[in-house]
Amino acid sequence: MKNTLRFLPLALAPxxxxxxxxQFSGKPGEVKIMTLDPGHFHAALVQKSxxxxxxxxxxxxxxxxxxxxxxxxxxxxxxxxxxxxxRWQESIYTGPDFFAKMLQDRPGNxxxxxxxxxxxxxxxxxxxxxxxxxxxxxxxxxxxxxxELLRQAFAxxxxxxxxxxxxxxxxxxxxxxxxxxxxxxxxxxxxLEKGTPEQPAVTKESVHHFYKFVxxxxxxxxxxxxxxxxxxxxxxxxxxxxxxxxxxECFPDQTLDYTKDIQVLTAKRWATPLTAAxxxxxxxxxxxxxxxxxxxxxxxxxxxSNGEINYRIKGVHAKVSVTWNYKAPDGAGDTHFSIMRGTKxxxxxxxxxEQSFKPVLYIxxxxxxxxxxxGQALTANLxxxxxxxxxxxxxxxxxxxxxxxxxxxxxGHEAHFSQVTEKFLKYLAQGRLPEWEVPNMIAKYYTTTKxxxxxxxxx
Length: 459
Known about the structure:
Helices cover 33% and strands 25% of the residues. The protein is α/β, with parallel strands linked by helices. Strands 8, 11, 12, 13, 14, 15, 16, 17, 18 and 19 form a ten-stranded mixed sheet that branches. Helix 6 packs parallel to helix 8 (239-250) and helix 8 (239-250) packs across helix 13. The relative contact order is 0.16.
């Protein structure tokens, strides 16, 4: 093990969360980050920007190996880039006792974790019990047992006066924000339909790819990423974002009670096959580690990275699904489809070839809505959206409208990590989270872990 300092170059109450009075005030450098076992590139993306409130010295605790080295390479890249270089200083401890060492040293007041999910919930719970704030990548729980640990962690956080918050980047994607804004205009959207299992009122579908580029370079994924006992199945991983968006858009600022408001109706899971050559391309390994051999059929790895959840939330039928492929078509990337069905209009996000694989929001009349009447309502109410998003316009199509978004709002997925971090820092300085955040995080992870349980029973 080693302990070195690496200087890099300049270049529902009762769940209401409050922090101890005076713990944070927003002053420069008062937040001191400890990064725990950064096995996922999302850990580095939190540090793609600098924040006045955050001390440039970051303490990394991790097992020795490729994961932490890849993380440090990314931080090096942010520090050495020509455009707005960062100035992070990484103090590194590696060893099998990395977690115990972090709690013993306790050089920081916020723990950031994004990596192997096998023990993540246990780490979160113990960190909260030590009175340390946590900013965690999703998923914070990958099965029913971890959901119970997470629920306990939130209860402890409330008692200790510390924050536990997950990184929900998709709330900052502009077409999703605009979908929410237009849904709040009753003259345009009407009210949210209740829907049926066959035609849900809200559907969100996400397609992802194992081979991708991050910060301009081909991503090297750790082998454990393909082991669902360590990463978690797709139905509890990316669907976390989709379930979160349904709660956030359809029930804004409302507190959800998972014991009453959520009913998981059906769920299913299926595997993505990866050849040995594809596995080698994304991991840079020449063979499969022993822990993946349980998932082999011949020489092909079967990864349960796909899932679908049909559920009811406060009486509204919803569906989310996630699909993982090996590699996107040329010019494409991860994609998102979403529809909110209103009594007057449907709000639809598409991201296919017709949209040049960039998300685009469309407003379409509901079956009983007159096209001209919807146009008049849009014209009269657009100014309300423009007050929040100056420059947004509408383009009339044959039987719908396209929402035209100025390019300055399309900051990209990687920038959303800084936006989430800035919001978290704001909450720390205010000493409080919105009242609905904690119960709704609990409802979210109940939905995903309950769905996994049901999907395994249904196979």
